[in-house]
Amino acid sequence: MYKLKRKIIIALVICLISALPITEICSGGLIRTVFKDVVSDVIGALTTKTTETSAKTDTAFLDGLTEATVTYVVDGDTFYADVAGTRTKIRLIGVDTPESVATEEYLAKSGKQNTAEGKSASDYSKQLLPAGTKVWLETDACETDDYGRLLCYVWLDSDTMVQDLLLLDGYAQTMTVPPNVKYSKRFLDEQKAARESNEGFWNGFFDS
Question: Residue 27 sits in which domain range?
């Protein structure tokens, strides 16, 4: 509705200017200046209103989440953050990166290995989440895993999650574990896009 009103107002201003005789526009410097000011004021007001509305929407979304400050990245999909004064270990929901610092016990149990790709994924997450970075945490149906880690969707702003970037740049694969499935389709679409364009580890490592 607001966008429609904006278009109507701009159209009316243009029509008013178009309706003036050419001689009036050319010889009446004052008239020309007045209409330039009107157009500028109208467009400026509309732009400001749009920006304010967008900012309020962004703030409202983030205000509903838990604010945290990154303290240390463990690997590609795990990091520590200060959450309301408590040092908390956080595991990203919905994605899985190659291992880089897993214990021998975990590797034996999971059948995985620490790899160079895991180190690259870890370095990438460290670039996204340097110490001191402010993030917003969103939980799902199940808030912790068997290791006591807080399971979260980690937002960098109102549009982008850390998960989005890891998937789109090919540093992670989707890992859907019910009941935490809120953004599973979004993640699958991002993985598909990365795979089709051979991003990151989709150059052969993930398919091996």
Answer: 2-63
